[in-house]
């Protein structure tokens, strides 16, 4: 028994759920760093982002997937495909649902079927429990327990840090012995360029009107580190925000360029905090009407 306790465990954990259920918020809570873009809008996550948690006896590699929704474009199809492909390849699935549900809705039902097909160890997390009464919650737990043999069912609030250790312990308990796949200093497999693109897009999602955000795509054109006269590390970043229509371009730039300045300022502050160095950020806005159907762009969102 003592030998088992000392044995190091590792594995890949897929975080899956419908759009806007709180997956990115939960990932950032569990990892303890800002890995995934968070915005109170659907389809914030477009790619399968990995977040890494290093513990004394384990390394947990989380995969935050795009939310399940009805695809309307090639991009949407790729996002949904990415989510489902990650289930069979994972050691454990974290299935996140909303406590406000009174039945298994269509989206959750599709996810459940994919989990059943893959026969993966699954932990059911019921988010936003502060919004419902105990009786409603117990009824929902009962409905789901009849559908699948979950390793555990944990009611949570993804914004409350007290649930972090409960979830991580349950995951660790269900992992198999294995090596550390990443360096213990790492918390994501995303490059600085990808993190910069995600950060700019997140700020745009938060600041722009509803009809614009999901028609945007951010590309960092140049990224170069240098030292200023005071020998401080500075990262020069030049990024383009692509949008679908000319009218959207006007909204993103704003009157006298104010909206674009706000997006850039918020992104720069975030990046300086996360990257630990000064950021010199320049942003432009261009119209690219067909980018959601452009294979070269859409392929970037496929599961690697």
The chain-level structural class is alpha/beta
Q: Between the first and last Cα atoms, what is the distance in angstroms?
A: 38 Å
Count of discrete structural domains: 2
User: Number of helical segments?
Assistant: 10
What is the CATH-assigned architecture of the largest domain?
3-Layer(aba) Sandwich
Task: Give the total of beta strands.
Answer: 10
Low-confidence stretches: 36-48, 68-75
Helix content: 25-40%
Largest sheet: 7 strands, mixed
Radius of gyration: 20 Å
Overview of this protein structure:
This protein is of the alpha/beta class. It folds into 2 domains: 2-177, Rossmann fold (3-Layer(aba) Sandwich); 192-301, 2-Layer Sandwich (GMP Synthetase, Chain A, domain 3). It is built from 10 helices and 10 strands. The strands form 2 sheets. Strands 1, 2, 3, 4, 5, 6 and 7 form a 7-stranded mixed beta sheet that branches. It has a 3-stranded mixed beta sheet with strand order 8-9-10. It is globular and about 60 Å long.
What structural keywords apply?
304 residues, alpha/beta, Rossmann fold, GMP Synthetase, Chain A, domain 3, 2 domains, 7-stranded mixed β-sheet, 3-stranded mixed β-sheet, 10 helices, 10 strands, 36% helix
Kindly summarize this structure in a few lines.
The protein has 10 helices and 10 strands.
What's the SSE blueprint?
Elements: H1 2-6, E1 9-17, H2 23-31, E2 49-54, E3 58-64, H3 74-85, E4 92-98, H4 106-118, E5 121-127, H5 134-145, E6 152-155, H6 164-174, E7 176-177, H7 192-207, E8 217-227, E9 233-243, H8 246-253, H9 258-275, E10 278-287, H10 295-298
Parallel strand pairs: 1-3, 1-4, 4-5, 5-6, 9-10
Antiparallel strand pairs: 1-7, 2-3, 8-9
Helix pairs in contact: 7-9
